[in-house]
Amino acid sequence: MMRQQLILLVIENIIYKESMLITILMMKEGSLVFPGDKLATSEELLPGYGTYDMGGEIISTLIGNFFVDKKRMSAEVKPLTSMPLVLKKGDVAICEVKQLTEAMVIVELLHIAGKERAIAGEKDGAIHISNVSKEYVSTPGRMYRIGDIIRAKIIQVEPSIQLSTVGDTFGAIKSFCMNCRTALVKKDSVLECPSCERREERKIAKDYGEGNINER
To answer: Is-above-0.90 flag for pTM?
Structure first.
């Protein structure tokens, strides 16, 4: 009898510890999240609006606020913007890097600084290698990686959206480890992964890691 009670106590302790771990893993509700952010595990929540399941982790696809749909037990991201917004030259955009070529950074525009409206029309833009930095850049792939969240200035709207990250307020504001996809933290002039300690180079904005999406 004593043996059975001891086994039950051990099992209850394990279940309690696992539930505490799950609570720690889930991001705090109401947090501002970016595409690529890990919100929870698939053991905790189902993927909902603005999220998807990747290898057992629920990942954000939008800039917005994270919340849990209690009825569906799903992770949801509420977008920051709703009404359409027409782009203009000089706007400062928050973008996600989608593709890299020898001479271009292809991005998707996610948000316009200081505007609480969704972007109307075309959302894909390009940063030519000459507009990446005032310093010499041999290839855009040295400065940015796919999935990086960057701040850039719109320098042309028609016939195609062209942007620039020249200047210390422009560049990556959030980047992810190429090895484990953990958000990188700034250490001196380089970025480091707190999980695997990998160090990576980026062209970063001076406020990297602060989550300022309305800085202009």
So the answer is: no
